[in-house]
Amino acid sequence: MAQEISIFDTTLRDGTQGEGISLSAEDKLKIAQKLDALGVHYIEGGNPGSNSKDIEFFERAKQLRLQAKLTAFGSTRRKHSVAEHDTSLLRIVESGVPAATLVGKSWDFHVHTALQTTLEENLAMIYDSFAFLKRNDVEAIFDAEHFFDGYKHNPEYALSVLLKAQEAGADWLVLCDTNGGTLPTEIHEIVSRVREELIVPLGIHTHNDCELAVANTLAAVQAGARQVQGTINGYGERCGNANLCSIIPNLQLKMNYACLSADQLQSLTTTARYISEIANAHMPVGQPYVGNAAFAHKGGIHVSAIMKDSKTYEHVRPELVGNKQRILVSELAGQSNIISKAQELGLDINTNNDKTKKIMEQIKELEHQGYQYEGADASLELLLRDAFGEHKAIFTLESFKMIMEKAAGQMNAEAIVKVNVDGETVYTAAEGNGPVNALDNALRKALVQFYPKINAIHLTDYKVRVIDEKDATAAKVRVLMESTDFESSWSTVGVSSNVIEASWEALVDSFRYALLNMSKVETAHDVPRVRLGLVNH
Ligand SMILES: CC(=O)SCCNC(=O)CCNC(=O)[C@H](O)C(C)(C)COP(=O)(O)OP(=O)(O)OC[C@H]1O[C@@H](n2cnc3c(N)ncnc32)[C@H](O)[C@@H]1OP(=O)(O)O
Ligand SMILES: CC(=O)C(=O)O
């Protein structure tokens, strides 16, 4: 029977102490529900003694009926006061939560310097505060701040702090590596020693200042800690907290501890991505387990082996954490990358045939010119479909013209586009707040009469990258565009020494890709040979 580990999520409290992370009460409610579905055991919702947003969150969270224990955070009572009158403690009890975490000092240096009080008064603050929580029937978790630094400088005092919380009735004693400077070997040794002296179960809370938060958490669990505190995607103060998205699969898949059910573990990737969206914090593609590139294979040698057995380059099956394998096609590709991608698209391909080699050479040549297909899946698909004769000539460009004007202090752009749709020439013109927007509007206007659904498509990201900086303003640029129709999103690429032409290429690929799955609507039977789109001014 696997040993159970209690997962304590503090994304909504310590996570929001990370730079750039700010969540409304509404955001917090959404995230709490997602964490609950993931199956974490505790959700630390915030600090009701700190701000009214967190008070509102705890009030509204009462309607959520969470399976997880909702936990409020605060600190031990202020020095020389009484717990019954301490605002932070009163707010916690008023919030109606079943569990609370109190941070308290365990490093003598902090007692003297930050609290500016005596070691005895700090022990009294801890005792009074935990006794108060227990009198109010609240499960009480002690976050022993700076425990490892404290233990290294004054082990007797650091231990006496834990014993005091235990004496007052604390249910968990959580050892914190608050400054994130401790090494895994030290964590293991200190947790092992301290565990011998206590009855109450231990937890671990680490920060990532030495990029060791995950390793330190695992070391603490191996030494006997039974609660793990951390955040989704590692958000948190300074360099962040321990990342639960790495800790949970490491504990469960590699160390045989029980954290979540197998089904819940499969929702880890969507949970991580959902929370990054709400927090408006970009997720690194290479984030272990849940990142977009965590199981992406690019090198030809890797892909060739992966196709024989994915264990050759994957440490676990991506499906176990809800992620998936991806094959990237780039200048580093061998035939295996192309074959695998073509098979994924349902294209008929045979190993080692001349066509595969030709496509590979074509891609390498295009990448040499500055195109980049690993970040432009839709352009790559069009390229492969064209090469396999699955070309769908939906429209062709005859010409486009751009007019840029600065008048009355304002920049205006107008695009005139001439395209051919199934033998019909269509002219349109449209304005935009910039040249790309004007081109987008004009092309869309030319196509919408044949493909009305095209209006649902919009651009979500647009990036320009200079390819050969040494040529300064004459340099080639690569434009990467991301588009969506609300159900899916796709990326396209264009390259030119003219930024408008590069944008046009990426824009055309985006529309061509969207139109692959749209059927053409026949308009009036007396369609003229040349249509004039409406011109907006
Ligand atoms: C390791 C951690 O992550 S702990 C959590 C840190 N998170 C936060 O601080 C976010 C929420 N904090 C807040 O909203 C505010 O800091 C509050 C409401 C808690 C306090 O605000 P203020 O009363 O204005 O105090 P301020 O933030 O300036 O200073 C902190 C005070 O708490 C005291 N304090 C710090 N830790 C503790 C503790 N464990 N127990 C009791 N008092 C403490 C400090 O000594 C200081 O008191 P002082 O003003 O008498 O010197
Ligand atoms: C409690 C806490 O967040 C810390 O010590 O880092």
Automatic annotation (TrEMBL):
SUPFAM superfamilies: 2-isopropylmalate synthase LeuA, allosteric (dimerisation) domain, Aldolase. Residues 5-266 form the Pyruvate carboxyltransferase domain. GO terms for molecular function: (R)-citramalate synthase activity; 2-isopropylmalate synthase activity. Its EC number is 2.3.3.21. InterPro entries: 2-isopropylmalate_synth_dimer (IPR013709), AIPM/Hcit_synth_CS (IPR002034), Aldolase_TIM (IPR013785), Citramal_synthase (IPR005675), LeuA/HCS_post-cat (IPR054691), LeuA_allosteric_dom_sf (IPR036230), PYR_CT (IPR000891). Pathway: Amino-acid biosynthesis; L-isoleucine biosynthesis; 2-oxobutanoate from pyruvate: step 1/3. It catalyses: pyruvate + acetyl-CoA + H2O = (3R)-citramalate + CoA + H(+). It is an enzyme of class 2 (transferase). Keywords: Acyltransferase, Amino-acid biosynthesis, Branched-chain amino acid biosynthesis, Isoleucine biosynthesis, Transferase. It comes from the Bacteria. GO terms for biological process: isoleucine biosynthetic process; L-leucine biosynthetic process. Belongs to the alpha-IPM synthase/homocitrate synthase family. PANTHER family: (R)-CITRAMALATE SYNTHASE (PTHR43538:SF1), ALPHA-IPM SYNTHASE/HOMOCITRATE SYNTHASE (PTHR43538). This is Citramalate synthase. It comes from Paenibacillus phyllosphaerae.
